[in-house]
Amino acid sequence: MPTMPEEQQPQRIEGDSLVFLLVGLDAESAPDTGVGDTEVAAEGEPAAWEAGAARSDTMMLLQIPADRSAATIVSLPRDSWVEVPGHGSAKLNAAYSWGGPALMVETVQNLTDLRIDHLAVIDWAGFRQLTDAVGGVRVDGERLDGRDALDYVRERKGLPEGDLDRNRRQQHFLRSLLEQTLSSDTLSSPTRLNGLLNAVGDVVSVDDGLSNSDIRDLAWGLRGLDDGEVRFMNAPVVGTETIGGQSVVILDGEAAEPLWKAMKEDAVAELVERGEAPEDLGEEVA
């Protein structure tokens, strides 16, 4: 999956920390494309991204420090009112629809001043398939299969804080999945790790710069990770407004600046120690 030419990327900070943009699409996508087009080109080449085929329903930033001792996941509300290059102010989730992976990455990089090293995209069908492939995920004592899990993470209208509560649900689900994966020693067992990576590879599209061996090496490097070392946060918000007849989320740029700086400089642990990190959202859900 192509994203942005190297010369258009923000300058890389020295070190081996990584920032991923994780995107969930609100459409059924063709295999290996991350877009709604159902045609796949000959000889296994993915179909080209098609404007308007899908919007991003979920967006998270994943930062992994150089020593692979922790991970930080920051949710970006889909209704965030942001500047989309070439289109003016709009909801964040429109960027993928208008310009595909490249515009999505550019928009988030402009918003956060972070260099996005890699992109991973999954759609509804892939999410259901992956959940079923790991045997379902236990959330609050109930094991959810793929269909129930999708309903759980996509619920919004019936929740008191709408988009923000949905972020909490998504993080709660992801925390449960990580606990399940880490408690079973999947990352430290070559056989189990291969099974997990095969399941992920079947349904997740990644950028051209991330090879299968890169993914395997990264997963193996995280084998000592404990679920308590995975931090869940939300991009700070001011509140919600109605703009042009649509409800939007207004981000708090000033409050977010220390977080983006810490992620950029591989200093999230220090930010947390100082008590300056945004709230942990993965525990309490509506």
Explain how this protein is built.
This is LCP family protein. Belongs to the LytR/CpsA/Psr (LCP) family. With 286 residues, the chain is an alpha+beta fold. Helices cover 35% and strands 21% of the residues. It has eight helices and twelve strands. A hairpin with a 3-residue loop joins strand 4 and strand 5. Helix 2 packs antiparallel against helix 5, helix 3 packs antiparallel against helix 4 and helix 5 packs across helix 6.
Sequence-ordered SSE layout with sheet pairings:
Elements: E1 18-25, E2 56-64, E3 71-75, E4 81-84, E5 88-91, H1 94-112, E6 118-122, H2 124-133, E7 137-139, E8 142-144, H3 146-154, H4 163-183, H5 190-203, E9 205-206, H6 212-221, E10 230-234, E11 237-243, E12 246-251, H7 253-264, H8 268-273
Parallel strand pairs: 1-6, 3-10
Antiparallel strand pairs: 1-2, 2-3, 4-5, 6-9, 7-8, 11-12
Helix pairs in contact: 2-3, 2-5, 3-4, 5-6
